[in-house]
Amino acid sequence: MKQQGAKTIFAPFLFYDFHPESSCATMAWTRVDEAPMTSVPTTQTRFLFFRYLTIPFLLLVIASAFGGLIAHAEPPIGSVSSYEKSLSVPAVVAKVRPSVVTILTRGMPTTPTQAQSGSGSGVIIDESGYILTNNHLVAGIKSLVVGLSTGRLTPGRVVARDFLLDLALVKITAMDLVPATLNPSPSLEIGESVVAIGNPLALKGGSTVTVGVVSAVDRSVLTPDGETLYGLIQTDAAINPGNSGGPLVDLSGHVIGINVAIAPSAQAISYAISMDAIYPHIQSMIVRGSVLRPDLGFTPVTITASIMASFGLEGDHGVLALNVEPGGLAAVGGFQNCDIITTVGQHQIYNLGDFWHSLRPSGDQPTVQLTIQRKNAQSTISLQNPSLPKAVP
Fold first, then answer.
1. Residue 202 to residues 118, 198, 286, 308: CA-CA distances in angstroms?
2. How far apart are CA 174 and CA 31, in angstroms?
3. Of 136, 254, 281, 357, which one is the catalytic site residue?
4. pLDDT tens-digit map of 194-239
5. Sign of dihedral through CA atoms 336, 364, 278, 267?
6. Annotation says 290 is catalytic
7. Using an 8 Å Cβ cutoff, are 117 and 107 in contact?
8. Does residue 162 have an active-site annotation?
9. Is 19 a catalytic residue?
10. pLDDT tens-digit series, residues 52-87
């Protein structure tokens, strides 16, 4: 379209000469009844012949080149262009399936004669053996075994966890691992096709593949432990017990999310943690064993019934500020031990997930307003916007 537009702009110059004297000359040259015909062209005729063949040709070349520059200057739409999302489902599966693993876990025994065990999925993200999975799969785990796509079993260990993101890193030592390709910032369209790969029910014969579409983005759900997960991708691809921790993949074969949950009271509603929320923390989890968050100068804790009873608090929701450090960011702002944060800005706070998520939009503001409950009184504290501490290299 850009090339056609460029040619249209140059069209008047290709077919018309805007100099009056040239127009008169054209009439004198083209109307044979106004000039005598001779077998030898005159000097003026030769000049005009050369001019009207050469100039349009040169302008045509310039117009084509200009149009080509315009066409090549157009920025791509989205972080993954449409032609890159053109793989067939079998091609996507062939590309990603070697990176999908089964995670077999054994936890603390529930009775003296029975041990609690389970299974889930994971995806290899590094040739050195790092595997991304869900935290709820490995919480309280005593030992785990990783089953590779080749059928080989190898012991693994949990090297990093974050319950707010429901993420964990497992490390194995093995040769010839095939890491998946992660999309750090997926550009998704509602209705585009996605593929979920995992090991539901620990079925024999390898991973299971289901196909669906992106139903919605930026969803949030409340987990069974009372925390809120944010930035989720909703899909209708079938997710079953054991799929947790497996990858959600687009038709370029790139991992766009980690399957995490289903809506138990509905059909065809599943959720995956978006790579937007995961990717910035992977290096911190590898290096530190945890997600790096701002140092607020206190320990935030989700308010629960048992916490309220233990500290003799009044209130039904919020985040409790414990261990307020003298001279720290919170203390300077006016915090005291056992203050309850009920709102951040305009956002109601019910748990730690709400708290950290509400701090993110104020990243470009010098201060953030927090409503706190102290005994029976409420007040507003203006806290200097926390900055992320320097990451460990």
1. 9, 9, 27, 40
2. 87
3. 136
4. 999 998 877 777 789 999 999 999 999 988 888 889 989 999 998 8
5. positive
6. no
7. yes
8. no
9. no
10. 445 545 555 444 544 443 333 333 333 344 447 789
